[in-house]
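In the design runs reported in the main text, the only information available to the sequence generator was the tokenized backbone. The following block is the verbatim input for one such run; it is reproduced so that readers can re-run the procedure and compare outputs position by position.
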């Protein structure tokens, strides 16, 4: 243990004192790096399967944690006629942020739900089969988050230039979210950051960010009004344009009214989402 520690300290000292010992101009020189993305079409000869995991960390506005929960679901796309499907959706709660997640509750209404991705996902009629429950909105978020990741990955792919911010003009403004209320998003930006390897495939890394969003939502026993900002990245295969990986981060600050409680609450929620390829 002592030998390993000393070796680690010695290596760190070398890197600080003489980084050129490990890296040279020749070793990091890249020739013919593309300034624009290739013209490729999404190729889905066989279905692709993903696991989406979203963790929500609730805090007060001073940063003191109060609770957390995790939402997971398996997503399959590339089915016949452009259909996609969800399976094995679970939600797990824990009151203390320091505790481990215990029992996961299966969201049966999400099992084998099949559709073609479109803006209709924001309509109330699409979610008629969803049971009325406070966790309902987080199961819906699986669907909405996946739709957003795909939209940011593919809809503007041909418009992106290396390290040049692309501002979306066509989806700004306020819109209704099923029967839950309204969401207003502004200044959505995309950026092609570069090329990297993921799942042994050469990928373009696309960054997206939306820093000015307001919402006014209500469920059966709760109302929430506030603001959100989110950002994330997707890794797109330059061979077939399929999503190899994605991550999303967000933070909301909101005023909450709960039926039966006399006072309003101010709260903050941080979300960390990962989309990983299963197949």
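Verbatim output:
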């Amino acid at each position: 243990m002592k030998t390993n520690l000393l070796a680690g300290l010695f290596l760190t000292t070398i890197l600080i004192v003489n980084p050129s010992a490990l890296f040279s101009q020749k070793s990091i020189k890249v020739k013919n790096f593309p300034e624009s993305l290739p013209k490729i079409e999404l190729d889905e000869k066989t279905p692709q399967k993903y696991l989406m995991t979203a963790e929500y960390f609730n805090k007060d506005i001073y940063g003191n944690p109060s609770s957390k929960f995790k939402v997971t679901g398996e997503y399959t796309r590339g089915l016949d006629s452009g259909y996609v499907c969800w399976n094995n959706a679970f939600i797990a709660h824990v009151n203390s942020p320091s505790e481990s997640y215990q029992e996961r509750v299966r969201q049966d209404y999400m099992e084998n739900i099949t559709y073609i991705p479109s803006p209709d996902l924001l309509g109330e009629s699409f979610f008629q089969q969803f049971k009325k429950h406070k966790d309902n909105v987080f199961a819906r978020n699986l669907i909405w988050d996946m739709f957003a990741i795909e939209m940011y990955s593919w809809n503007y792919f041909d418009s992106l230039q290396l390290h040049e911010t692309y501002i979306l003009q066509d989806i700004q403004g306020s819109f209704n979210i099923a029967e839950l209320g309204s969401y207003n998003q502004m200044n959505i930006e995309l950026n092609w950051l570069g090329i990297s390897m993921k799942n042994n495939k050469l990928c373009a890394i696309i960054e997206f960010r939306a820093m000015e969003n307001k919402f006014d939502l209500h469920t059966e026993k709760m109302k929430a009004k506030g603001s959100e900002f989110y950002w994330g990245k997707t890794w797109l295969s330059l061979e077939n344009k399929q999503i190899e990986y994605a991550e999303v981060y967000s933070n909301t600050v909101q005023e909450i009214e709960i039926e039966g409680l006399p006072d309003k609450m101010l709260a903050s929620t941080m979300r960390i989402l990962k989309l990983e390829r299963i197949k």
